[in-house]
Design brief:
single chain; mainly alpha; two-stranded antiparallel ribbon; 2 strands
Length: 192
């Protein structure tokens, strides 16, 4: 009989706590839905942007509507192409002169007219120098081209409305407790 009273008191008290747990409406917290609508996200946009940048450097940035990035890409890739062509032309000049010197024919650097006379070793050193610069220019240009494709792809993956504005980065001045000296640092805070 005693068990029955204990169970019925616990049962009645549980109802009392349920009714007592009402929260006033001014204290209720509502959660804002931060999910994206599926229709607004184009899942093929990153691959399209990468493809467009592969076809013509800067076109992927234009596809992403980041028009200001396209001249930067054109300038970077164009500069690499310019240095490649310039070094290749100079390499070919010294190469032809070196071949002519070996064959005993006249060449551009044989000392006739206003030209300076270069020795066989100087011609060989010059062509080696410009060949290295040409190859380096080619590798840098290929790297910039690949970087252009990667940037367009990543930029299409991160639309502006997906970025979280609750993250902040602030410089701070603090005192070190052990030495009592002032120090400079940065504070990264995340609000949620």
């Amino acid at each position: 009989m005693f068990k029955w009273w204990v169970y019925s008191i616990i049962f009645l008290c549980s109802f009392a706590t349920i009714y007592a747990q009402e929260v006033p409406s001014d204290l209720k917290v509502t959660k804002i839905d931060t999910t994206f609508i599926a229709d607004e996200i184009n899942i093929l946009a990153p691959s399209k942007a990468a493809f467009y940048s592969a076809v013509l450097p800067g076109l992927g940035q234009i596809y992403n509507k980041k028009y200001w990035k396209a001249p930067i890409v054109w300038g970077a890739v164009g500069t690499g192409v310019y240095f490649y062509v310039d070094n290749n032309n100079k390499y070919n000049r010294y190469r032809e002169a070196f071949k002519a010197k070996l064959a005993g024919r006249e060449h551009e650097f044989d000392g006739t007219g206003d030209n300076v006379e270069l020795t066989q070793t100087s011609l060989q050193t010059a062509q080696t120098f410009y060949k290295k610069n040409r190859d380096l220019s080619l590798f840098i240009t290929i790297g910039l081209y690949i970087l252009n494709i990667i940037e367009a792809n990543v930029d299409a993956h991160l639309p502006d409305n997906a970025l979280n504005t609750n993250i902040s980065f602030n410089p701070t001045i603090f005192t070190m407790p052990t030495t009592n000296q002032t120090g400079f640092g940065a504070t990264i805070s995340f609000n949620f």
